[in-house]
TrEMBL record:
It comes from the Eukaryota. Residues 833-1082 form the Ion transport domain. One of its GO terms (molecular function) is ligand-gated calcium channel activity. This is Transient receptor potential cation channel subfamily M member 3. GO terms for cellular component: plasma membrane. The chain crosses the membrane at residues 712-731, 826-846, 895-917, 923-940, 961-984, 1052-1073. It is a multi-pass membrane protein. Pfam families: Ion_trans, LSDAT_euk, TRPM2. Residues 60-334 form the TRPM SLOG domain.
Length: 1305
């Protein structure tokens, strides 16, 4: 607080009266700046605005002196007010009184300013008053908050005002503790009397923070100018963290925007320019802004100023500003000199013409002004653009097409910028850097990936990062610590961070083969957590940069061989896009992941992996009750499953044969898995239900047999093997695919299958001994060749019978082998075998289960079961997973395998009890045997999965059993509650025994099925019951007569209503819902579960139990010989296709081309949808406008017609007054061009004096604008009047419409 002691006359130079001061000295020699004392005050805290409209939060404020320590002020703003450190400072200066922007200019300025502020994280500094441009800035902030719906704390509107000019400033002056809050009422403003020459102005309630500068003066404007200039310079020297390395930090950018303004604005601009702060002048806003623009246009691109330059500036200053008669000449000279000083730093001056602007142009102009000021430092420009997240500006002004060669030499800086863009999720910048030549192969080192995960995990504002930290802590926690409930260690990134990430991926996917970072080379040295690129060990060796971008996938067949043979030992990662894609998926960065997915290899597999990871993360988020994150992850997961399905559909439409190879191709970059395996392990039903997957399963299901072979024919051939020659076979699997492929040779298709399949009839003919081995080696070849302007020759495939005379034949033994090795044959044989086993099991349980020595049939049953159990062990060991833990986990995930486990455990218990129990207790062994047999019968339901109509019903039964389990839990509550009530009233003081527990449950349970037991409930004695307590106690409560209790029938009635009506209907509703859910997706669900059946019987030996033991012994012998090195055999797996590098690259190119076509078609469809929405919205808007016009015509009272006439007459008179000056001006122009008098003798009888032709042109433009505005208004009123008169008679009966009709319209 400042107390002035300089007094002269009645008033002090500070603007106050003598009696306002404590010291009554009177000396004209004293100076206000030196003769002012400073004292502490309590003007700080928060301002609560009352009566100014809706206000969500209070505004912090502080009252300071002009000579305050700026470092102290900065600490208050950052530490006390907790303001975010700005990445840009926008200081707005301009008119506080005369602020007359047109609505169009206001809209342009408002939207542009807020776009620039929100996109860059800027502070906006104004004068803070509720007048002029300052009030307009506050309204812009308010409109942004209202539009967004929530208070954005990153929007800072800082008002720096003169305390002595603030109306009702007494309410802001508190005690030493400050004001929390200071109440600032709008009602107190109207009662105040203005003192001095200048009126007091209230604070603008829409500003977020206030700094009130007090030098002791009252109603003296401009006190804050020097402080604002010093504060801007102070802030501009602060370093802004752009996310790059410490040495690449840049000064915090500051820009000054000039909107209209007076003489003080000229001084403010000069102070800013002197501090090397760029200035953006809004030409067309008026006064100071137009004056600066005028001088800038005259001096721009001119080496020598014209002779009349200063004369023009003086004349312009005289006309554009309001001057007092006294000292006007000196003030004009000072104003012109200030403009001259401003123009001396032309590079800091930027002019933006509002008349030629669009809504989105002004934010670019603000940022362009800053870049122009730093034109000599391109790296600083890029750092600023990156900090602002304005890739459009970086692409247009910084990294342009012409200077990209220069940027390529700055690769280290671009790598730093690339790392920052990745961490900060700035996708557009990443694409820009890739276009500039940044190579992911050289950029992504092990150290860089480690640092990338480290920086992302330490982001505490990211919910996905928080969940990954928790998951990583859980995985790293030992079982001992988990059991003892020890507090887990705080997460700290360790050198083996990448190994922990690999474990997370394994945990989410349930497959050890997906551990991509298990090698010791992924353990790095700990480094400081800093957002920067960390080069790897190969930097010194790798001098040549290899750019692996999306365009490189478009090569000829010759180039693909180079692509596959390219050495990758100079890079840490062979496929860096995949590593970054997985990183983006784990942190749920959608746009980033989608861009990297498009660039990576094997996009369908990548989409399925992403879908599986996101599903696992969604389940983890649900466990942590992160419901919003769970919904986002589920949505993201579904999107990638849709991507994979749609791209596969595009591949299938292009070439069905190659598409079928995609689903079984071994994916080396994803742990040697396949698309089938990924879809089956992660329950991706939509992908598995695609036509491509199902046709591939059909081909595998029937083996070498023709696809149209009927099941009944196969079944009869199993029983009568001599009918096998009636079945048609093929000697090449590719021929089978051609049977189902009608679009192999599409027009314009670049990848054609060039295979010559041979289809042979069944003929008994000698063949070579190695044929059976070689037929496995005739797996589908995808050696396609790219053709140019050639029509592929169509191939015809014929399936022949035994009677056909074809040279391409197969032997009878081969036909038998094909027949019995087909999965469908193995399935039928095993089910026939299983039925025989059930018959034997049933027969001995019913007829030959005795306590004595087991019978032969029982021994057969035991041996049969042992062979089936060995097959289950083989399935576990033969799983695709690497570790036994995940093999068991994968096997146990199938409900049928869990059912098998229960079945074999019951069988084992049956055999044990058969030998352990005596003859007296042998009944229990019989009971367990019978239950085991029942479970064996239920196990046969899996066979129904083959049938399309019955399979979904089995799935319904499974889901309904789950519903029934939940229902039983609810029903058990009612059962026990009423059962206890029955027992307590019918049989009081019962003897404790197991029979008592049965009695509690028995009656209420059977009542649910209609067995009401009314006689017993009513207390009637039953036959042979006793009432003697001694007798029934000796019998354990059996045979006791019920007591007569009137409450029991009432309880029974209530129980029957609750169970038979309420609970039973609840169960029916649950079953109906489950049925409807499965029925809607019955085919999709059936297709998904069908895969596990086909895969199981493809992998199962062709001999059925119990003879399957011989196959197991043979395989065991082969495995041992293989380990000893005596035999080396290579088997073919149609569920995992092995391809050469060249064929794999060609198939990858095929997949890539399908992806591009899919993305192109999706974009076209999206544009069509948007266009349709726009058209529909436009039509609705037109109809709404028509309805509103009809309402206006109907409800407009006729009595307003006279008022409209008076208004029109008044406006016409105003137009006439405006036209008169134009007429006089026209007369003067005629005389001027005819007589040519000197300009000094011209007199124009208007309020505006025009001494030059230029000034005359300005007058014409201003008057023309006013005439145009009034003319447009008059035209509107005239049209309204004509419509009212035209519809007066027909709308008399609709002069009063109800509000409901208006709302409906």
């Amino acid at each position: 607080m400042n107390n002035c002691i300089h007094i002269s006359g009645e008033d002090c130079q500070c603007g106050q009266k003598k009696e306002c001061h404590d010291n009554g000295q009177d000396s004209a020699s004293r100076d206000m700046k030196t003769d002012t004392l400073q004292s502490p005050c309590g003007s700080c805290g928060e301002i609560k605005f009352i009566g100014f409209g809706n206000r969500m939060e209070n505004s912090p404020f502080i009252r300071i002196c002009p000579k305050i320590d700026l470092e102290f002020l900065w600490t208050i703003m950052i530490k006390q007010w907790e303001l975010p450190v700005p990445k840009l400072l926008i200081s707005v200066t301009g008119g506080a009184k005369r602020y007359n922007l047109t609505p169009k200019h206001q809209l342009i300025f408002k939207r542009g300013l807020m776009n620039a502020a929100t996109s860059t994280g800027a502070w906006i500094i104004t004068g803070g008053m509720g007048a002029g441009v300052m009030k307009f800035i506050g309204e812009a902030v308010r409109d942004h908050i209202v539009t967004k719906g929530t208070l954005d704390k990153n929007i800072v509107a800082l008002g720096i005002a003169t305390f002595g000019c603030v109306a009702n400033r007494e309410s802001l002056d508190g005690d030493d503790r400050g004001l929390w809050p200071a109440t600032y009422r709008s009602a107190d403003l109207g009662n105040r009397k203005e003192t001095g020459d200048e009126p007091e102005v209230p604070l603008d309630h829409n500003h977020t923070h206030f700094i009130l500068v007090d030098d002791g003066s009252i109603n003296k404007y401009g006190v804050e100018i020097e402080l604002v200039a010093e504060l801007e310079k102070f802030i501009s020297n602060k370093k802004i963290n752009t996310g790059l390395a410490e040495k690449l930090r840049v000064d915090l950018p500051v820009v000054k925007i000039v909107v209209e303004g007076g003489v003080n604005t000229m001084k403010t601009v000069w102070k800013s320019v002197a501090a090397d702060i760029p200035v953006l002048v809004l030409q067309g806003s008026g006064r100071a802004a137009d004056f600066i623009s005028y001088g800038y246009q005259l001096s721009r691109d001119v080496s020598i100023l014209p002779k009349d330059f200063y004369a023009k500036l003086k004349k312009k200053a005289e006309n554009i500003f309001q001057w007092e008669e006294k000292d006007s000449k000196e003030q004009i000279e000072e104003c012109v000199q200030e403009l001259k000083n401003i123009l001396s730093k032309e590079r800091l001056i930027n002019v933006f013409n509002l008349n030629e602007a669009d809504t989105q142009d002004i934010d670019r102009a603000i940022l362009y002004a800053l870049l122009k000021a730093k034109k000599s430092n391109s790296e600083a420009q890029l750092a600023l653009a990156l900090a602002w997240n304005r890739s459009d500006i970086a692409r247009e002004k910084i990294i342009t097409t012409s200077n990209r060669k220069w940027w390529k030499e700055k690769e280290n800086f671009l790598y730093q910028a690339m790392f920052t863009a990745l961490v900060q999720d700035k996708v557009d910048f990443i694409q820009l850097f890739l276009d500039c030549g940044v190579s992911f192969s050289r950029f992504l080192t092990i150290h860089t990936l480690w640092n990338l995960y480290k920086c992302s995990l330490l982001d505490h504002s990211d919910s996905s990062a928080q969940m990954l930290r928790n998951l990583m802590t859980y995985i790293q926690q030992s079982w001992t610590a988990y059991i003892l409930c020890k507090q887990p260690e705080k997460f700290l990134p360790k050198p083996d961070l990448l190994k922990s990430v690999g474990k997370i991926i394994v945990h989410l996917l349930g497959d050890e083969s997906m551990n991509l970072y298990s090698d010791d080379k992924f353990t790095v040295d700990s480094r400081k957590s800093e957002q920067k690129w960390l080069p790897g060990n190969h930097e010194e060796e790798n001098k040549v940069e290899g750019n692996q971008q999306l365009s490189q996938f478009h090569h000829t067949s010759e180039d693909t061989s180079k692509l596959s043979n390219k050495k990758s030992d100079t890079h840490d990662f062979e496929h860096p896009e995949k590593e970054l894609f997985l990183w983006a998926i784990l942190f749920n960065r959608r746009e980033m992941a989608k861009m990297l997915w498009k660039m990576s290899r094997n996009q369908i597999a990548g989409a399925l992996v992403a879908c599986a990871l996101l599903k696992g993360l969604a389940d983890r988020a649900a466990d942590e009750e992160e419901l919003e994150l769970n919904a986002k992850l589920q949505e993201h997961s579904q999107k990638y499953e849709d991507f994979a399905t749609d791209v596969l559909g595009e591949c299938y439409s292009k070439n069905s044969q190659l598409a079928r190879q995609l689903v079984v191709r071994r994916l080396t970059i994803y742990g040697d898995t396949t698309l089938f395996t990924l879809a089956e392990a992660n329950d991706l039903m939509k992908f598995m239900g695609h036509t491509c997957c199902q046709t591939k399963l059909n081909l595998i299901w029937k083996g070498r047999m023709a696809q149209y072979t009927q099941t009944w024919l196969i079944l009869i051939s199993i029983i009568f093997p001599f009918l096998i020659p009636l079945i048609k076979f093929t000697c090449n699997q590719a021929s089978l695919e051609l049977q189902d492929n009608s679009d192999t040779h599409r027009k314009g298709e670049e990848l054609q299958l060039q295979q010559k399949e041979k289809v042979a009839k069944n003929q008994v003919r000698p063949k070579t001994d190695d044929f059976i081995v070689r037929h496995w080696e005739t797996e589908v070849s995808i050696r396609s060749k790219v053709f140019r302007n050639k029509q592929a020759q169509k191939q015809s495939d014929k399936l022949t019978t035994l009677t056909d005379s074809s040279t391409s034949t197969i032997g009878l033994f081969n036909a038998v082998y094909y027949f019995y090795s087909a999965p469908i044959t193995v399935f039928l044989i095993n089910n026939i075998s299983y039925l025989i086993f059930l018959a034997i099991f049933t027969y001995f349980v019913l007829t030959d289960l005795k306590p004595s020595k087991p019978s032969v049939l029982e021994y057969i049953t035991w041996g049969w079961t042992v062979t089936m159990l060995i097959e289950e062990f083989r399935q576990v060991v033969a799983g695709d997973q690497r570790s036994i833990k995940f093999k068991i986990r994968s096997w146990f995930s199938s409900i049928w395998n869990r059912f098998d486990l229960l079945m074999y455990m019951l069988f084992l218990v049956s055999v044990i009890t058969r030998y352990v129990l005596s003859e007296d207790l042998f009944t229990w062994a019989r009971i367990i045997y019978s239950i085991t047999l029942a479970v064996y019968y239920l196990r046969f339901m899996q066979a129904f999965f083959v049938e399309k109509n019955i399979g979904p019903k089995v799935i319904m039964i499974k889901n309904m059993i789950v519903d029934l389990m939940f229902f039983v839990l609810i029903f058990l509550i009612f059962l026990l509650s009423f059962g206890v009530a029955y027992q307590a009233n019918l049989f009081p003081n019962s003897e404790p025994s197991w029979y008592l527990l049965k009695s509690i449950v028995y009656m209420p349970y059977w009542q649910m099925y209609g067995e009401l037991s009314l006689d017993e409930m009513s207390g009637k004695p039953m036959d042979d019951c006793v009432t003697n307590e001694t007798l029934w106690r000796a019998a354990g409560g059996r045979g006791r007569c019920p007591a007569d209790n009137a409450l029991v029938p009432l309880l029974g009635a209530i129980y029957v209503v609750l169970t038979n009506i309420l609970l039973i209907n609840l169960l029916i509703a649950m079953f109906s819902y489950t049925f409807q859910q499965v029925q809607e997706h019955s085919e999709t669900v059936w297709r998904f579960y069908r895969f596990s059946l086909v895969h199981e019987y493809y992998d199962r030996p062709f001999l059925c139990p119990p003879f399957i033991i011989f196959i197991h012994l043979y395989r065991l012998f082969g495995y041992v010989c293989g380990k000893l090195g005596s035999v080396s055999s290579k088997s073919c797996n149609e569920f995992k296709l092995e391809l050469s590098d060249e064929d794999d690259d060609r198939l990858t190119l095929f997949e890539k081309s399908a992806l591009e076509e899919y993305l192109s078609s999706s974009q076209r469809l999206e544009l069509e949808t948007v266009d349709k929405k726009v058209t529909t919205t436009h039509e609705r808007l037109e109809r709404l406008i028509d309805d509103i016009d009809n309402i206006k015509e109907s409800v407009k009272p006729l009595k307003d017609l006279a008022k409209w006439k008076e208004k029109i007459t008044e406006d016409l008179n105003n137009i006439k007054e405006l036209v008169k000056p134009l007429e006089n001006l026209a007369k003067w122009m005629d005389s001027a061009f005819v007589v040519s008098p000197p300009l000094s003798s011209c007199k124009i009888t208007t309020d505006t004096t025009c001494d030059t032709r230029e000034e005359m042109q300005i007058c014409l433009e201003e008057l023309g604008n006013q005439v145009a505005q009034n003319g447009y208004h008059i035209n509107q009123m005239m049209q309204m009047l004509q419509e009212i008169l035209r519809n007066q008679e027909q709308n008399m009966h609709t002069s009063h419409l109800e509000i409901n009709d208006i709302t409906d319209a």
